[in-house]
Design brief:
Blueprint: E1 60-64, E2 68-74, E3 83-84, E4 89-96, E5 102-119, E6 122-140, E7 153-160, E8 180-184, E9 187-201, E10 208-216, E11 245-249, H1 258-261, E12 269-275, E13 286-294, H2 302-307, E14 309-321, E15 324-334, E16 336-342, E17 357-365, E18 376-378, E19 382-392, E20 406-411, E21 418-423, E22 456-463, E23 466-473, E24 480-481, E25 495-506, E26 509-522, E27 525-539, H3 542-545, E28 551-554, H4 562-571, H5 579-586, E29 593-597, E30 607-614, E31 630-631, E32 644-652, E33 655-656, E34 675-679, E35 687-688, H6 690-699, E36 703-704, E37 713-715, E38 723-727, E39 730-733, E40 740-747, E41 752-758, E42 761-762, E43 774-776, H7 778-781, E44 784-789, E45 806-811, H8 815-830, E46 880-881
Parallel strand pairs: 3-10, 23-28, 24-27, 34-43, 35-42
Antiparallel strand pairs: 1-2, 2-4, 4-7, 5-6, 5-9, 8-9, 9-10, 11-12, 12-13, 13-17, 14-15, 14-19, 16-17, 18-19, 19-20, 21-22, 21-30, 22-23, 24-28, 25-26, 26-27, 29-30, 29-44, 31-45, 32-33, 32-34, 32-38, 36-37, 37-41, 38-39, 40-41, 40-46, 44-45
Length: about 900
């Protein structure tokens, strides 16, 4: 078997590399048919005791040991290693010199990404990702028996290099990375490919092998059409169409004093236009156009604005080792202005009567050495990306001060993504984490109803180099950790403020401790003196007790943070800010947003992987940046408390639903016909108005369970509904799998049933403190790619009204495909071995009856449903008992009580 070395093979980086503007990347390598081992250049990694490897310079790429020879043909490039481009064929011959005691000969092509931390120049923590593993049987004694004295034979082989990494995520295709090395402060990463021949011999005879590294250099050389741009002194520029250019607004940064330094800037808009597809060969200039428009433009400030324009192309190298992220940035080039055109009316469409001026600044960005640099990345391990950054920093005449008033970053390749793991509880959870659970009360028999389909989404932060698993929660703002016997040593350096005790409540659950400060790393940033709550006591927090998380990462605004407010109240200082606030304020170049792609949990899987993006967008979802920004709605005119938006409309099976807000907790209420909804990753089951929930599940044939709470519907398991939300102009279809959940129940006589219940639960605004109408949790968010932009930080705090935060949503669910997927997945779950027959929902409030012909057989017909009461309240439902815990809809997040 081939082995992955602890460190990459060494080769000179100063050797002349091939010029990939020629055919190597566009055509396959030349084929050859003749084998010649005369005057060969040999190299061996043989473990044979009588093999003496030799190096004889020659014009062929040939490697030899005593029993084996590997010939890869003529050496046509300067490196002393074989070099291949995109779509190349690695082909050659293997010679078996001696067949004595040989069992088989195998050829293996392996590619790997090796990333590791360094300390004093020495590798420490390592992480390896295999990106390519191809095997070929050259010869086998079982298939081709021969005598031991048979003369040498040669065997041809060929490997076709694939376009993409093998075994990558189903939703993401990762191009095969090039041979490359990255070195940052404290870490390194290497991509290398090994071609290895192994001879396996019978008995106690030595195994023999020959291997060489091969260079994979898929340079970007494909032809491209550069958008038209005139040179200085040339003819008047023609209108440029949208098919050639992608235009984005450059947002204004609120920096104290900056807008006043040059008069009229308050009425100036800035847009950046770049080629529609930023796939450029290195060495070819990227054209750009910056448009200034608005009534604030004048002859006095136009020269100051244009003089303050700066565009840079940034190369970012990233390494990730066990979740520890290191980044290094290098400025590749600075944009050169080619021409400036004033009052160019045909550049962008203007409205009738619009007399505002327009100025278009055109230029080019160089992209480095021709045929050398390239973007690449292997998710979770290493990569190189390029970004175009634009800033406009005008200064008043005679002033030396230049504050960036407008800033924007455009990625030419997807940047950093942080994996988010969703974990399906392995055992029923106790009701201690309920924000609002449900109970069932009826005629006779005590029971509890278990919920095994609630999900928790987690990520990791690093403390003392160790991963700490935290639930990601956009519905709250506090970060807290709960030390256990195995993790308590991580927090020994934390500074605990004994005069700042704090208790946080989550429904029936509660955590208590003291505000503390410690060093914490997340998303490639290390924040010293980060304020957290170090938990000393917890009560009824089952996700902690079930060891599903070590705490919570609050991703809401500072204005909602109990830690920040406690610090401000007692010290009149702002060092209690959230982790994300500290990250964004410390690095102004990082866009102030986070984004989520929450994968749907297929029935039967225990884990799944989504994406948590900081300052960038996940590959394949960049279109979200072209959607409209959805402003935050808050019941308070002074500050934003939650990631709360207005729902413009809801349709059910094509019929519009009446929306009426009951928000009464502040000074502002939603407009007539709209409701407010918080987008909360920490809330598993969405909460709607009782009227809308009743309409949804009645249309599906659901029956309200008579439990006294009016919150639970028993629904036919194969029932569907077309539920559509309209938010910020986006039409969002809800996947049928997100509308109901499968449960199992058992009667007191030991009869088991499968029962489906509602995932969208009735809710009143008063239960949310009068602040919101709906809570759109994970079962909603799985249908969108969601972006949470914190806007500008005012005095270092997020959530203040003038900061202008917003949300963007990219719908992901196709209703036709989702319906087909639902029918297949749900039917498979219901018919799985051991699944009990389905409960007829019409009998839920009386004597329970099974639907004939349902169930997966096996052990589902009798006995208990398993699980434990976990201290759950006894519930009555006819003559049957459901064992387990009541549904955990809220999990850990927010302050909903």
């Amino acid at each position: 078997m081939s082995s992955i070395p602890a460190l990459p093979p060494s080769y000179s980086t100063e050797e002349l590399l091939p010029d990939y503007r020629t055919s190597l990347s566009l055509e396959r390598s030349p084929a050859y048919t003749e084998l010649s081992l005369t005057s060969t250049r040999t190299s061996s990694t043989s473990t044979s005791s009588d093999s003496q490897p030799k190096l004889i310079p020659s014009g062929r790429l040939s490697y030899s040991s005593k029993r084996l020879a590997l010939d890869l043909g003529p050496r046509i490039w300067a490196p002393h290693l074989p070099v291949y481009g995109r779509n190349s064929l690695i082909e050659g011959h293997v010679e078996i010199k001696n067949f004595k005691h040989v069992n088989r000969v195998e050829l293996t092509l392996t590619g790997a990404v090796l990333s590791y931390m360094t300390s004093n120049g020495n590798p420490t923590l390592r992480s390896t990702k295999v990106v390519l593993n191809e095997k070929s049987m050259i010869w086998s004694s079982k298939a081709d028996a021969c005598s031991s004295n048979q003369s040498a034979r040669t065997f041809p082989f060929v490997f076709a290099l694939p376009d993409y990494v093998q075994g990558s995520d189903d939703h993401i295709t990762t191009p095969l990375p090039p041979s490359a090395s990255i070195q940052t402060r404290g870490s390194s990463a290497h991509v290398f490919y090994l071609l290895r021949v192994d001879m396996y011999r019978t008995g106690i005879h030595f195994h023999d092998s020959v291997q060489t590294e091969v260079l994979y250099l898929p340079r970007t050389v494909s032809n491209y059409e550069r958008p038209y741009i005139p040179l200085p002194g040339s003819e008047k520029p023609r209108r440029i169409c949208d098919a050639e250019w992608r235009t984005a607004e450059v947002p204004r940064k609120s920096i104290s004093g900056s807008p006043k330094s040059v008069p009229g800037l308050g009425n100036v808009d800035v847009h950046l236009s770049l080629p529609h597809k930023l796939h450029y060969p290195s060495g070819c200039a990227i054209p750009f156009a910056v448009t200034l428009s608005g009534s604030g433009l004048s002859c006095a400030n136009i020269p100051q604005l244009t003089a303050g324009l700066k565009l840079t192309l940034i190369k970012t190298s990233t390494t990730i080792v066990k979740g520890i992220i290191s980044k290094q940035e290098i400025v590749v080039s600075t944009g050169q202005i080619c021409r400036i055109d004033e009052d160019e009316r045909h550049w962008r469409d203007s409205k009738p009567g619009d007399n505002s001026r327009q100025v278009v600044i055109r230029g080019c960005l160089e992209t480095g050495t021709k045929g050398k640099d390239q973007s690449w990345g292997v998710r979770g391990h290493a990569g190189v990306s390029y970004q175009v950054r634009v800033s406009l920093a005008p200064s008043a005449e005679g002033s030396q001060r230049r504050d960036a008033v407008w800033e924007h970053t455009v990625s030419t390749v997807s940047a950093l993504q942080i994996p988010v793991s969703r974990i399906k509880p392995r055992a029923p959870l106790s009701p201690g984490l309920q924000r609002r659970g449900f109970t069932i009360l009826a005629a006779s028999g005590d029971a509890t109803l278990s919920n095994g389909e609630n999900n928790i989404y987690t990520t990791t932060v690093q403390v003392k180099g160790k991963d700490v698993v935290l639930q990601v929660d956009t519905g709250s703002s506090d970060t807290w950790v709960y030390p256990t016997a195995s993790t308590k040593d991580l927090y020994t350096d934390a500074f605990v403020y004994q005069n700042l005790p704090l208790t946080l409540s989550y429904g029936k659950g509660q955590v208590a401790g003291h505000v503390s400060q410690m060093t914490m790393s997340f998303a490639g940033y290390t924040v010293q003196n980060q304020s957290i709550l170090l938990i000393e006591q917890e009560k009824d927090m089952s996700l902690i007790e079930a060891n599903l998380t070590n705490g919570l990462l609050g991703l809401g605004f500072d204005t909602l943070s109990s830690i920040a407010n406690t610090v401000a109240k007692n010290t009149q200082q702002s060092w209690g800010r959230t982790l994300l606030s500290n990250i964004f304020t410390s690095d102004p170049t990082t866009p102030n947003h986070i984004a989520f792609r929450l994968d749907r949990h297929d029935d039967g899987n225990n884990t799944d992987v989504g994406a948590f993006d900081v300052g960038t967008f996940a590959a394949g979802f960049e279109a979200v940046n072209n959607t409209a920004a959805i402003p935050i709605f808050s019941s308070s005119a002074q500050q934003n408390l939650y990631w709360n938006v207005l729902v413009d409309g809801v349709t059910l099976n094509g019929k519009p639903q009446t929306l009426k807000s009951t928000v009464n907790g502040g000074t502002q209420t939603p407009p007539a016909g709209k409701v407010s909804a918080v987008l909360d990753t920490g809330y598993s089951l969405p909460q709607l108005s009782p009227e809308l929930a009743r309409s949804i599940y009645s249309s599906m044939g659901g029956v309200l369970v008579e439990d006294g709470t009016n919150t639970t519907y028993a629904v036919p398991c194969m029932a569907e509904a077309q539920l559509v939300f309209t938010i910020g102009g986006q039409t969002i279809h809800i996947h049928p799998l997100d509308l109901t959940q499968i449960q199992t129940v058992s009667t007191t006589k030991g009869n088991n049933y499968t029962m489906c219940i509602n995932a969208y639960q009735p809710f009143s605004s008063n239960a949310g403190g009068g602040e919101v109408d709906y809570i759109l949790g994970d079962a909603f968010l799985r249908n969108v790619y969601s972006v949470y932009d914190y806007g500008d930080f005012i005095q270092g705090f997020s959530g203040l009204a003038q900061g202008n935060p917003y949300i963007k949503l990219l719908p992901l669910t196709d209703p036709t495909a989702a319906s087909a997927e639902f029918k297949t997945a749900r039917a498979a779950s219901l018919s799985a071995a051991g699944m009990p027959p389905q409960l007829d929902p019409t009998t839920v409030n009386g004597t329970p009856q099974a639907i004939p012909g349902t169930g997966g057989g096996g052990s589902g017909g009798g006995g208990s449903s398993g699980g434990s009461n976990n201290g759950a309240t006894g519930l009555k439902l006819g003559g049957w008992v459901a064992l387990g815990a009541a549904a955990v809809v809220g999990l850990l997040s927010s302050n909903w009580v």
